Amino acid sequence: MKKTTGFEKFTKKKAGAVKEAFKKEKRAFKQEIARDIEKKKVEAGRKKTTVAPAAGNAPSRPSAPLRSGKSTKPGSPAGKPQLQQQPKTAQENSGIMPLNKFIAHAGICARRDAAALVKTGVVTVNGTLVTEPGFKVSGNDEVKVNGKKIQPSRQWVYILLNKPKDYITTVEDPQGRKTVLDLVKTATAERVYPVGRLDRNTSGVLLLTNDGDLAQQLSHPKHEVRKIYEVRLDKPLSKADFDKILSGITLEDGFVRPDAVGYADPRDKSVIGIEIHSGRNRIVRRIFEHLHYDVRGLDRVMFAGLTKKNVNRGKWRLLTEKEVRLLKHFNKK
Asked: pTM for the whole thing?
């Protein structure tokens, strides 16, 4: 297998190739869906011919309930950033869901974090303390976190932030330091939270949402969501250490091997590009510190296919409908 020798992920040619591969995968996905629909139609036709209801005894078909919600105005441009109407699973249609999912849908935190939150004993349901994340609740139940009543959001919100340094990636900070929510407070009235974490001194692409399902999908290790970082070191990275990183190294919490490594500029070997799917804490910094390099700057330039293009440092934008679809369909394994 040919090793990556340059930072091709940032070149125009490479970006075009990735985009074309993305389109090809999307076409294949649509064709697969079309085949499944056609197969179901054929099977339904066979059932009708073999089990036809007796005349006058055909069951009446219940009408589907109308669902209200904001729709796109006629003539609106494609790809316009929008709030997404909340999808419903069969269980949610019955009004019942696990407690940690209820909390995630209320925009408190991601579902895995919500499970840990429930176990700490700060959540009550109808006045009773509940410490089991899978405890079933409905919209009619009164759920409180730290004494504050919460409700699931009615609309999904997806915000891409170009995080600057010196901001904490949390919903709130007991020490009163600046958080990423301070930067997006004018974006929406819904409660959102960051997907994953960037430490205080790391900048770059950060996704914030109130969509608990997508946050779970993008955060769970099994989905191997890839990220690309630009790393600025205190000295040039030697060829020997470059090869060590590319082959994988063993840290105190186990083995890690990046998906790709490259020099951003052949003339300045202190600036490194690294693509990795591991979500372990401070993993990129620890890789270089393990080899006795001081990380002077760390910037995430890509997360799950999202880049900070046209988003200045400290600014944000809403994702387009197309970007949301791609996140949901093509980051699944």
From this structure: 0.64
